[in-house]
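User: Show me a protein chain along with its predicted structure.
Assistant: Here is one chain, sequence first, then structure tokens.
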Amino acid sequence: MSEFTINLKIWHQRIFLLTSGTIILSHLAGLQLSQSTQLLLLLTAVAVAGLPHGALDPLVARRAKLWQRGSGLLAFSLLYLLIASAAFSLWMLFPDTTLASLLVMSVWHFSGDWRSALPRSQCLAMAAAVICAPALWHRTEVNEIFSYLTSTNAHLFTSFMAYLAPLSLLAAIAALVIKKNSGADLLIEFAILMLAAAVLPPLIFFLVYFCLLHSPRHLLDVTQGFTRAEVTSYGIVFTALSLGLAVATFFLLPDTGISERLTQVLFIGLLVLTVPHMLIIEHASKRHTLHSPRRAT
């Protein structure tokens, strides 16, 4: 990893801490947003800062030699869409089982945010704490979100996550304290995330984590070795395609109300896209190409 990239990561962490801290202080100072405003802000942030990190999957796949030519890109894109569509279809048919499976996969995927600093088992504890902590402090709001995503067992998901939250939190804290060379910055970062989970509404907390930490960190990892033109063109095209699919999905869902359908499109959309996204990232990591600059030809 180049010194320039390392400096970018340091600056990103500082910006994340400053921005998330400002959001927390603003909320504590009395800034209250309606549920619809929170959802609108989150949708906008995901479109601008969240989706682009997955839009670069074709570039990551090319570096991992999953495709090389234009026909290969087309085949890769169709397979990517097929996998995501299969996950979405399973959610439509078996919402509870599929949602549980997708959440487990998300814990695995989000654990990659700290893979360079900690062993995988400790990263999993941190990711589980991030996903489950809102249910511990905001059970009613989290239960409402799950009621849009499952058939009848929203309270079971919320209760399980509320139970798992303190266990994963203790495991993560123990890991950070025991791992002496993990650094104070990582401990502060995790503390800010847990404070945000306790203080902020769940939708805004998800914005803080997914759009301000996870997505930019992933982008800094995978863009190494690619030109600005490649990153920009692939990012714009595939983000636009993702937004188009999201709009189409919105109109395909049952008419249960705008807020409910938008919540379904947002969370289920991100979860089903995590399936092909995670497969590519794991494959690239195993081939040691995820963070490796592309060799000149």
